[in-house]
Write a structure and sequence with these properties.
Radius of gyration: 16 Å
Number of strands: 9
Structural class: alpha+beta
CATH architecture: 3-Layer(aba) Sandwich
Strand order of the largest sheet: 4-5-6-7-8-3-9
Shape: globular
C-alpha cells in the first residue's frame, strides 16, 4: 500500500483519486476513483429560503483555518466514518503546509458546524462537513461557496453525489468529463484568501 503522505495525497488529487478508511479503527487506507463524480457547479449552489432566513437572523460568526482539527474531529464524530488516525494526521500536515483548509461557523464560542477540504489551483476538493447546531453545515457550505467564487475557483469536487448534496445543487459527472474539468481547474490560478475579502462577509453579501 502506498504510504499516505502529504505529497502522495496531493499527487492523488491531481489524478482524481482520494483516500478512505473502512472505519475509524481501520489501520489501512484505500484509494478511491469514482466512475461518476459529484461536483458543485459553483454558480449553481442553491440556498433555500429557510436557510437564507436563518443566516440573516443569526448572522453567524465565520472563520477560516482557525479550528481545523476541531472541524475534522466533528466530521469524524459519527457512528460510521472513513476518517481514521492516518487520514487525520495526513490532512493535519496538509493544513500545516497551506493546502488543506477549514471553514468554521460559530454560535458564541460553540462550533456550530464546519467543512474542510483541499485547494489545488482552481480546484477545491471538499472532504467532509458536519453540524453541531441547526443548519451548521449548510451555513458553512454557503459561506465557503461565496469565498471560492470570490477566489476564482472553477471546480468544487464533492467526491460522491448524495441526495442531500443534490438538493443543494450538486450534480454528477462521468469520469471523462470530471477529468477534463479537473485538468482545466488545476491550471487555473485561484486564491483561498482572495485579495480584499472580508474576514467575515455579511449575510447580505453572501446571499
Amino acid at each position: 500500500m502506498t504510504p499516505l503522505t502529504p505529497d502522495t495525497l496531493l499527487r492523488a488529487y491531481t489524478l482524481g483519486a482520494f483516500p478512505m478508511a473502512d472505519s475509524r479503527e481501520a489501520t489501512e487506507v484505500r484509494w478511491v476513483t469514482a466512475t461518476r463524480r459529484g461536483v458543485f457547479p459553483l454558480p449553481g449552489f442553491h440556498v433555500s429560503r429557510s436557510l437564507s432566513r436563518h443566516i440573516r437572523r443569526t448572522r453567524p460568526r465565520v472563520t477560516v483555518d482557525r479550528a481545523f482539527a476541531a472541524v475534522v474531529e466533528g466530521c469524524a464524530a459519527r457512528p460510521e466514518t472513513w476518517i481514521n488516525a492516518t487520514i487525520f494526521a495526513a490532512y493535519a500536515e496538509l493544513h500545516a503546509r497551506g493546502h488543506a483548509h477549514s471553514l468554521e461557523v460559530w454560535e458564541g464560542e460553540t462550533l456550530a458546524g464546519g467543512i474542510y477540504g483541499v485547494a489545488l489551483g482552481g480546484a477545491f476538493f471538499g472532504e467532509s462537513m458536519f453540524s453541531a447546531r441547526v443548519n451548521g453545515s449548510k451555513m458553512a457550505l454557503t459561506y465557503l461557496m461565496h469565498r471560492l467564487r470570490a477566489g476564482g475557483f472553477t471546480l468544487f469536487d464533492t467526491q460522491f453525489l448524495t441526495d442531500h448534496l443534490a438538493s443543494l445543487g450538486a450534480v454528477e459527472l462521468p469520469r471523462a468529463e470530471y477529468e477534463r474539468q479537473l485538468a482545466q481547474a488545476l491550471h487555473q490560478p485561484a486564491r483561498f484568501y482572495p485579495a480584499g475579502y472580508p474576514a467575515t462577509p455579511s449575510p447580505e453579501d453572501v446571499l
